[in-house]
Each structure stands twice: as structure tokens, then as C-alpha cells.
């Protein structure tokens, strides 16, 4: 396993009849059962797609774009790039046309595979004029062909492209281990996306490392395992999980493209493996707790007793399967059923997960649960927790196989690796580390120093190497009194208020106090309103002064409980009924806040809050 292509090719030879990629087709507006293609069938399609690309003029090293939601065609195009020494460049499905235009130009993409829903966007974009050909994931229309022809491009349906490859077959051009496999653009929280260069060696090393990690499990992963893919394939987490599943000859089923009906896909697919970001698990937790709250009082009490009983034995060192089979039978099998009934392993990544939710899912899901930490620059994995180790709750585990981690001092924030506890900026090195940022040597040399990648994340490490993410180095600023504020830490603390869905804390060096924009939790806001005799829609409630006063009281209580310093207390807020969303360009696809865009969006409201605070002090 020296290249990503070898990982897939060997599996196609070893497991030709195994189910590889699954999807749901629609009939009368409803999704049907999963249909599957085998490793042998996908391998044949990969050869056809790769042959067609070379026939149209692609050469080893050409950049090939892929733009669309997760589906079998996405993976087929990706593997064709691997097999013919082409460079796969994913275009984020959630970044919007502006970023897609930028990536097409910046990466100098020649050919792009496009989902039908994105076709109009690509055809109308200025950057499309540099493209040689567009290949649709499905069919094309006469209008699309005419529009493409007018701009000097060719456009092909998926079946037309496969047929071209059949008519002009060419043997694969296997890549070398240090060849570029993919340029994966990350959205970042400011500025243009940056292209992370990952080699075939990076990905092959990651697969080998995960193989060794999975040996820690009593139940080994087999060809019968099934993964539900709904995180963007253009994002490193989903891409790397699928690479590993292909290595094992296991199956990947794609959701139908709507996160709101993900549960229906899960119930139909019955996956054994689930990976998600914290927001996914927060929603699962909310759904389960809502169902528990609707139980009769004695049944709710019984559930809570069984929870405490199983938790006690898990903390005493028992595996989740043996801690309380009775509790699993009487209560938690219903939780497992909500996740399809076959889940064996759950992984959370992308951001730190609440310790309460992690503990809850470890106890109730009847599955192994673990958190991991990594970035696109580290091939998606730098550290990972171990199964059934309750002492690792709230952490992201230890350095992953083939990775080294150290902490570096951040004096302006008071973080010192040599203090107790050891804290500092997380630095990573190893064979899964990226080669650099595409066409950006300045940023590369700034990020990789002495062979260590400086992540910008601040961690705390125990003497035995267990890592916890506690802060973000860049998101600090000084208030006018000269005090530094670590804003991400404060947002994490204040989010513990049940009335808050999300919060953005703001301050600057010209002022001495902090203010915040709060997106309230809809259900909890309605409960508060009902208890206080207030009526109206959620939007109406968010406009009430009573709600604003209540939120400020909750923020004050949390600040005092967590012993925050006086300048870390929030003095004024703006209440926004709309969550911070990608549509307004306020967050990245992994839900990290874009602070410059947030400031631009709420600038007028912030100035108004500061003005009111100044008048109150008079």
C-alpha cells in the first residue's frame, strides 16, 4: 500500500463481488431501497472514466475538479484520478459559486465532474470559460449542451463519458507514492480557500495507521461493515473514512442528499459505523432526550436509574457490552434502534464534543464511541481516543499511528508546555502531514517550521500523552485595558446555557467590555415563554426585551459559576432568531465561525449595543 490507487486496486482484485457503493433511487418522489454496485463494477467504470479523460487530452498531473454531493459517481471520478496519475480537486458542495470559481482558476482545473443541481452554476460562472470539458453525474439537456458549446466547452452525460472510455480504452498510469493525490481546499475562517497538497503516501500511510488502530477493538472490522456517508466527500473526514472502507472491502451507502431525512436513510441502510461532527450528535442527543421527557414519570425515572447504573460499571472499567446487559435490553436497545440497530462504532470529529453528550452516547448507544482530532493538513487524523476508556471522555485521545504531537509555548495567552498542566499550541509531524499549500509558499513556510506543522489550536496534554483541545491561538484580542480575551473558550463556556443554541462573542482593543450575538435554542425558548405566560412565534419571542434580560442573567450566572474574570463577562447582547449559517457566509462547512464576516453582518447592531451601554453608565 504505497498509493491510494493500490489501496483500491488490491481490494477490487480481492473482493470483486462485494458491495462497494450504495445509493437510493427516487420513485414518485420517495426514496426507494438501497441499490449497490460491486468493487468489480466500480473498477470497470473507473477504467472507462480514466480512459475518457486521457482521450480528451488530460495528462498525468492535470487537475480534475469534482463538484457535487456524495454519490457513487464522485468516488468513481476520484479513483479514476488516482489510477491515471491525475490530481483530484474537490470543490466544496457547501462553499458556493464564488469559492468554486476561485478554486477552478487557482488550481487551473481542466475538466470538472458536476452534479446536475450544480450544472447551471458552473455553466454561468466566469471561471468555466477556462474548462475544456464538463461531465455530468447524470444526464444533460440540449440547452446545457448549447450553452457549453457557446463558451467553447464540451459537455457529456455520465453514460456518454463511460461509452467514450469503452471505445478508447487505455491502461492505467499508476502514480508514485510521492506524487500529488489531491489538492483539497479548506474554507478557512477568513480570506480565500487554501489548497492543501496531499500525496499518495499521505493517504496510504493514513490507511495503514487506521488498520493498526482498529486492532484495539475486540470486534475486528470486516467486509460486512457498512458506513453511512453524509459528511461532505470534499471534506477530509469523510474522504479518509471511505478510503479505509475501500481498503477493507466493506460497503459505503450514501444519504439521499437531505440532512433532514438522514434518519430515514439510516433506518434503511442499517450502518455499522457512524461518523459525524458535534452538531450531528447534539441533534441525536436532543432527539433522544425529547423522547425520554415524553415518557411516563416512572418510566423516565427507570431510564435514568439504568443510565446511572451502567455508567457506574463503565467507569469501574467494564466494557460497554458487559457493564449492564440488562440496561441495554430494557432501555438502551431503543436508542440503538434509532441509529439503525447495527451500529458498532461511532466517531466524532471536526470540533470538540460536549463531555455530557459524549458520556451519554457511550452509555446509551450500545456501541464503541471515540473522539478524534485532525485537520486537512494532517490527512484528517492526528490523535484519536481508545474504545471503552471512560477516562478519555472530553479528550481527543493520544497521538495517532505515524503521528507525533508536541505543544509549543504561546506567551501572549499564558500557555506554557512546561507548566502544570502542560498547555500550548499543538504541533504535528509525520508521514501523514501535507506537503504545503498550493501556490502559497509564504503560508507554507509560516505553517511548517522545522518539520512541525503549527495547527493554531491550543491543547492541554496529560503526562501520559492524552490531548484535550482548549482554545484557538488566533482568536484572541486585547480589550482597551490591555487584557487578552480567548474568545473561543468563552463561547464554549457560555454555550452551556440551555437557552443558547450558539453564541458569537465580540470585543476590540478600543473598548473595555464584551458583547455577543446570541442565537437562542428554539425549543427551550418556547418552554421559557410558556412558563412566563408569553406567546408568539419564535421570531416574535426573540424580539422581546424579557428574553434579552433572561439571557443576560443566564450568561452572568454561567460566568460566575465558571469563575470568569470581570472583563470576560458579557455586558450586552443582540438576539438573532436565525442560526449562524453557511447561506449568509457566517460559518465554514465545518461550522467554524467566520469572524470578519460576522462582524460585517452585525456591525450596526454591535455599535447600537455599545452606545446603549455607554448611556447606561452615564
UniProtKB/TrEMBL annotation:
Keyword Ribonucleoprotein included in the entry's annotation: no
Family statement: Belongs to the ATP-dependent AMP-binding enzyme family.
Catalytic activity: a long-chain fatty acid + ATP + CoA = a long-chain fatty acyl-CoA + AMP + diphosphate; (E)-4-coumarate + ATP + CoA = (E)-4-coumaroyl-CoA + AMP + diphosphate
GO biological process, one term: phenylpropanoid metabolic process
Enzyme class of the recorded protein, top EC level: ligase
Phylogenetic classification of the source organism: Eukaryota, Viridiplantae, Streptophyta, Embryophyta, Tracheophyta
This protein's UniProt keywords: ATP-binding, Fatty acid metabolism, Ligase, Lipid metabolism, Nucleotide-binding
Gene Ontology terms for molecular function: 4-coumarate-CoA ligase activity; ATP binding; long-chain fatty acid-CoA ligase activity; trans-cinnamate-CoA ligase activity
Domain AMP-dependent synthetase/ligase: 11-438
Job of this protein: Catalyzes the conversion of long-chain fatty acids to their active form acyl-CoAs for both synthesis of cellular lipids, and degradation via beta-oxidation.
CDD domains the UniProt entry points to: LC-FACS_euk (cd05927)
Pfam family of the protein (one): AMP-binding
EC number per UniProt: 6.2.1.3
A GO-annotated cellular component: endoplasmic reticulum
InterPro entries according to UniProt: AMP-binding_CS, AMP-dep_synth/lig_dom, ANL_N_sf, LC-FACS_euk
Protein name from the UniProt record: Long-chain-fatty-acid--CoA ligase
Amino acid at each position: 500500500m504505497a498509493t491510494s490507487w493500490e489501496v483500491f486496486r488490491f481490494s477490487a482484485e480481492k473482493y470483486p463481488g462485494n458491495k462497494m457503493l450504495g445509493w437510493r433511487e427516487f420513485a414518485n418522489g420517495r426514496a426507494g431501497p438501497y441499490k449497490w454496485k460491486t468493487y468489480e463494477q466500480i473498477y470497470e467504470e473507473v477504467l472507462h472514466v480514466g480512459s475518457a479523460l486521457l482521450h480528451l487530452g488530460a495528462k498525468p498531473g492535470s487537475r480534475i475538479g469534482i463538484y457535487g454531493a456524495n454519490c457513487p459517481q464522485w468516488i468513481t471520478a476520484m479513483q479514476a484520478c488516482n489510477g491515471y496519475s491525475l490530481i483530484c480537486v474537490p470543490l466544496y458542495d457547501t462553499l458556493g459559486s464564488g469559492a468554486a470559481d476561485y478554486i477552478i482558476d487557482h488550481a487551473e482545473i481542466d475538466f470538472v465532474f458536476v452534479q446536475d443541481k450544480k450544472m447551471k452554476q458552473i455553466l454561468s460562472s466566469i471561471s468555466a470559460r477556462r474548462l475544456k470539458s464538463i461531465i455530468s453525474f447524470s444526464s444533460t439537456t440540449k440547452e446545457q449542451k448549447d450553452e457549453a458549446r457557446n463558451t467553447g466547452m464540451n459537455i457529456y452525460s455520465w453514460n456518454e463519458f463511460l461509452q467514450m472510455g469503452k471505445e478508447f480504452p487505455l491502461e492505467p498510469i499508476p502514480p508514485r507514492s510521492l506524487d500529488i493525490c489531491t489538492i483539497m481546499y479548506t474554507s478557512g475562517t477568513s480570506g480565500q480557500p487554501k489548497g492543501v497538497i496531499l500525496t499518495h503516501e499521505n493517504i496510504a500511510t493514513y490507511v495503514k495507521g487506521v488498520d493498526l488502530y482498529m486492532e484495539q477493538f475486540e470486534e475486528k472490522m470486516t467486509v460486512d461493515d457498512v458506513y453511512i456517508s453524509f459528511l461532505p466527500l470534499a471534506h477530509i473526514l469523510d474522504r479518509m473514512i471511505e478510503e479505509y472502507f475501500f481498503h477493507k472491502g466493506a460497503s459505503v451507502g450514501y444519504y439521499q442528499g437531505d440532512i433532514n431525512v438522514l434518519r430515514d436513510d439510516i433506518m434503511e441502510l442499517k450502518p455499522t459505523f457512524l461518523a459525524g461532527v458535534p452538531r450531528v450528535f447534539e441533534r441525536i442527543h436532543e432527539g433522544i432526550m425529547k423522547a425520554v421527557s415524553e415518557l411516563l414519570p416512572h418510566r423516565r425515572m427507570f431510564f435514568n436509574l439504568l443510565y446511572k447504573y451502567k455508567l457506574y460499571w463503565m467507569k469501574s472499567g467494564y466494557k460497554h457490552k458487559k457493564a449492564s446487559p440488562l440496561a441495554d435490553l430494557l432501555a438502551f436497545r431503543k436508542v440503538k434502534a434509532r441509529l439503525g440497530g447495527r451500529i458498532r462504532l461511532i466517531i466524532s470529529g471536526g470540533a470538540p464534543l460536549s463531555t455530557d453528550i459524549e458520556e451519554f452516547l457511550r452509555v446509551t448507544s450500545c456501541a464503541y464511541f471515540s473522539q478524534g482530532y485532525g485537520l486537512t493538513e494532517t490527512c484528517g487524523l492526528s490523535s484519536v481516543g481508545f474504545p471503552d476508556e471512560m477516562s478519555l471522555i472530553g479528550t481527543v485521545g493520544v497521538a495517532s499511528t505515524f503521528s507525533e504531537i508536541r505543544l509549543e509555548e504561546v506567551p501572549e495567552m499564558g500557555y506554557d508546555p512546561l507548566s502544570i498542566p502542560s498547555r500550548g499550541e499543538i504541533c504535528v509531524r509525520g508521514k501523514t502531514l501535507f506537503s504545503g499549500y498550493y501556490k502559497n509558499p509564504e503560508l507554507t513556510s509560516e505553517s511548517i517550521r522545522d518539520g512541525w506543522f503549527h495547527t493554531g489550536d491550543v491543547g492541554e496534554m496529560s503526562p501520559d500523552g492524552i490531548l484535550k483541545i482548549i482554545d484557538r491561538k488566533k482568536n484572541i484580542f486585547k480589550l482597551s485595558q490591555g487584557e487578552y480575551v480567548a474568545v473561543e473558550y468563552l463561547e464554549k463556556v457560555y454555550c452551556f446555557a440551555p437557552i443558547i443554541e450558539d453564541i458569537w462573542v465580540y470585543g476590540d482593543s478600543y473598548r473595555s467590555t464584551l458583547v455577543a450575538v446570541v442565537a437562542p435554542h428554539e425549543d427551550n425558548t418556547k418552554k421559557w415563554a410558556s412558563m412566563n405566560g408569553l406567546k408568539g412565534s419564535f421570531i416574535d419571542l426573540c424580539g422581546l426585551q424579557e428574553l434579552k434580560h433572561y439571557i443576560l442573567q443566564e450568561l452572568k450566572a454561567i460566568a460566575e459559576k465558571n469563575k470568569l474574570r470581570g472583563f470576560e463577562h458579557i455586558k450586552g447582547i443582540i438576539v438573532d432568531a436565525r442560526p449562524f449559517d453557511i447561506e449568509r457566509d457566517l460559518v465554514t462547512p465545518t461550522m467554524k465561525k467566520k469572524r470578519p464576516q460576522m462582524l460585517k453582518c452585525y456591525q450596526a447592531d454591535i455599535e447600537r449595543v455599545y452606545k446603549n451601554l455607554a448611556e447606561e453608565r452615564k
